[in-house]
Amino acid sequence: MKDGQMAMKFYQLTATERIKELINLKVISKEDAALLLNGGGLSREVADHMIENGIGLFDLPLGVAQNFMVNGRSVWVPMVIEESSVIAAASNGAKIVAQNGGFTAKADPPRMIGQIQVINVPNPVPAKRNVLRHKQELIAKLNASHPSLINRGGGVLDLSSKIFQKSTAGPMLVFYLTIDVRDAMGANLVNSMLEEIAPDIARLTEGEIRLCILSNYADKRLAHASCTIRPATLAKEEQAGEEVVDRILVAHALAEVDPYRAVTHNKGIMNGVDAVVIATGNDWRAVEAGAHSWACKKGKIRPLSSWTKDSDGNLHGELEIPLAVGIIGGATQVHPLAQICIRMMKIQSSGELAEIIACVGLAQNLAALRALSTEGIQKGHMALHARQIAIAAGAQGADIDRVAEMMCKEGNIAVDHAKEILRRNEITNS
Description:
CATH class of the largest domain: Alpha Beta
Helix content: 40-55%
Shape: globular
Radius of gyration: 25 Å
Mean pLDDT: 93
Structural class: alpha+beta
Strand content: 15-25%
Strand order of the largest sheet: 3-8-10-9
CATH topology of the largest domain: 3-hydroxy-3-methylglutaryl-coenzyme A Reductase, Chain A, domain 2
Order of helices and strands: HHHEEHEEHHHEEHEEHHHEEHHHHHH
Number of domains: 3
Low-confidence stretches: 1-6
């Protein structure tokens, strides 16, 4: 770095300088840096084999969130997101939490559920009993066909069943396979096991097999994050920390009673969650589906997080969310940047990844609630959004920040105004 540059904050560096700093901090290797500096993305050939009817590649910005302290360990968190202010907000929330000892996080064992639908069963109740009588035999058969999973500590854990007497398709018998998928997200593994056991289920029930499919309602694969924050670390220039705590609690209360706020509250959490899920090559649609279903588990949508005040006046936050994510398989194993992102976090298991993601979601929520309940969300967001507006207006290079700054100063952040600023500059320099 140039003289005096070490005193600069990370966000003030150029992208190339940030990469060099990450090398110096041993967050990434020189080989990873070379890939990042050269684009590091998918080749057209690999991309064309990942999907159908491929015509190109679609880039999204990859950034890194700072200040995360998770279970006593400092973590640099990669995030892929197109929305301005998300990474800044996550870093800000994490900084506040780090000043208070950091996040505590844990993840459930990586258990996934698969379903087998059986119709036209002559006698559903005896059929169910017949299958369950052979439960251990069926489980042993499946596990025997997947020795590598067993060797890693995973495998089929349980087989259960429900009878649905009434549906638009008539009575049906559904079997549920619970599988420990270890460090994979698990979709392909679960679906394969379901299809393996389906003929046995058909024989034992004398019914007709229809769907054999993984469930994205990962209620047995939850991640938990929590933090406790002293009021003084939440203070603003014009507001005492105790007042900010109370304001955050009032803001959270709205999400508890009003679905219109609860949806947006949870969307803000998913800003952080999805960004890490995408960065690591995981299925963010599955995570979104599971999270929002979990938020509705009591019959109406509620906030995924909870915020309370303890007996000492500290703000206490918790987040519980289903997180079916992996560090092996699928795009995670194919995409070069996903591999870099996993290495960046120094994680060894899918559980560690889930813990970090949950902490990012909680940090995002803290930053949003603090901003909303004090100066308002637009002040910080629009300052960062102004750069996107400047680019859309045609600004390039140093003009991007100059035009963004002028728009913020003049209180008019719009493409037409950005174009006017650029035009004025051309006249001045002519």
